[in-house]
Amino acid sequence: MLETLQDFTQSFPDWLQWFAVFLVATIPFVESYLGTLIGVAIGLHPAGAASAAIVGNAAAVVLVVVLTNGIRRRVRSAPRVDDQYPGRRRVGRMFQRFGIPGVSLIGHPTQISSAAMVGFGANPTKVLIWEMVSVVIWGGVVAILGGLGIQALGH
User: Fold this and answer.
1) What radius of gyration, in Å, describes the C-alpha atoms of the chain?
2) DSSP characters over the chain
3) Distance CA 49, CA 10 (A)
4) Which residues are CB-neighbours of 7 under 8 A, at least 6 positions away?
5) Chain centroid offset of residue 74 CA
6) Nearest to residue 61, comparing CAs of 137, 112, 121, 11?
7) pTM, two decimal places
8) Which of 36, 65, 29 is nearest to 20 (CA)?
9) Rounded CA gap, 131 and 137, in Å?
10) Quick check: 120 and 92 in contact, CB under 8 A?
């Protein structure tokens, strides 16, 4: 899969490869960290790769949070049906244990974890703030490690 995504980004003209990294980073499980690695692997500067991947991942998270919050408001106004399935209870306990910061920093993919937190009733603004912190941290760390790794392989 990563090879396919790398081929996709390389198929863009050099001056548009940052946009391809942006698009790839919107995919759950790829996000800012693998998007950054793909960008670095195709020859983008680590800062450029990380920036494109972070913005792409952040855009996807914002879209998911806004949509989930709208859906949640509509569902909450509808008549209530018992929705306490075992999986929902387990995820709810994890959310209660780690809170928004913990889930944001360790709960990847960010699109899915943000939708889950908003679905559980977390404040969408707080979810967005912590998810953006997570996206930047993960993207930055991988940019540094990826840049160092590519540089080490080149020597």
Assistant:
1) 17
2) -HHHHHHHHHTS-GGGHHHHHHHHTTSTTTHHHHHHHHHHHTT--HHHHHHHHHHHHHHHHHHHHHHHHHHHHHHHHSPP-----HHHHHHHHHHHHHHHHHHHHH--SHHHHHHHHHHTT--HHHHHHHHHHHHHHHHHHHHHHHHHHHHHHH-
3) 13
4) none
5) 25
6) 112
7) 0.82
8) 36
9) 10
10) yes
Lookup: tokens for 98:
């780690």
Contact criterion met (CB below 8 Å) for 56 and 63? no
pLDDT digits (tens, 9 = 90+) for 70-118: 999 988 886 655 555 665 676 677 788 989 998 888 877 788 889 888 9
Query: With left for phi above 0 and alpha for psi between -120 and 50, is residue 43 left, alpha or beta?
Result: left
> Which token pair is 127?
């979810």
50 token code pair:
């990380």
Buried-state track 38-69, b at ≥16 Cβ within 10 A, e below 16: bbbbbebebebbbbbbbbbbbebbbebbeebb
Q: Specify the amino acid at residue 87.
A: G
The string of pLDDT tens digits covering residues 57-81 is: 999 999 999 999 999 998 888 665 5
